[in-house]
Amino acid sequence: GLDGSEVFDVTGLDDGKAKTATVTATKADGSKKSFTAKVLLLTPKEVEYFRNGGLLQYVLRQLASKKAA
C-alpha cells in the first residue's frame, strides 16, 4: 500500500542499539501506516555512521575537524 511518496518516521532505534524499529509512513492525505522493520547495524563503525546522520555527514565532520586542527 505504499508508493514512495510518503513521509517516513523511524522510531525506537535506541541510539543504534536496537534490532527492530517502528516505521510510520504518512501519506499526503494524512493517513498513516506503521510497521516494524529489522535494524541491521553490524559493526561499531556502522553505528558511528548512524549517530552522525549517515556516511556523508560522518566524512564531512571528519574533514572539517582536520581543517580546524
Describe the protein's architecture and organization.
The protein is of the alpha+beta class. The chain has 2 domains: 1-38, no CATH class; 42-69, no CATH class. The chain has 2 helices and 3 strands, in the order βββαα. A 3-stranded antiparallel sheet has the order 1-2-3, with no helix packed on it. The longest helix is centred in the C-terminal third of the chain and has 14 residues, at 55-68. It is elongated and about 50 Å long. The mean pLDDT is 93.
What would you say about this model in short?
The protein has two helices and three strands; from the N terminus they run βββαα. By secondary structure, the protein is an alpha+beta fold.
Helices, strands, pairings?
Layout: E1 7-11, E2 20-26, E3 32-38, H1 44-51, H2 55-68
Antiparallel strand pairs: 1-2, 2-3
Rg value: 16 Å
Could you give the order of the helices and strands?
EEEHH
Whole-number average pLDDT?
A: 93
Q: Give the number of domains.
A: 2
Unreliable segments of 5+ consecutive residues: none
Percentage of residues in DSSP E strands: 25-35%
Query: Could you tell me the number of beta strands?
Result: 3
What coarse outline follows from CA principal-axis ratios?
elongated
Largest sheet: 3 strands, antiparallel
> Between the first and last Cα atoms, what is the distance in angstroms?
50 Å
Number of helical elements: 2
Helix content: 25-40%
Spatial arrangement of strands, main beta sheet: 1-2-3
Structural class: alpha+beta
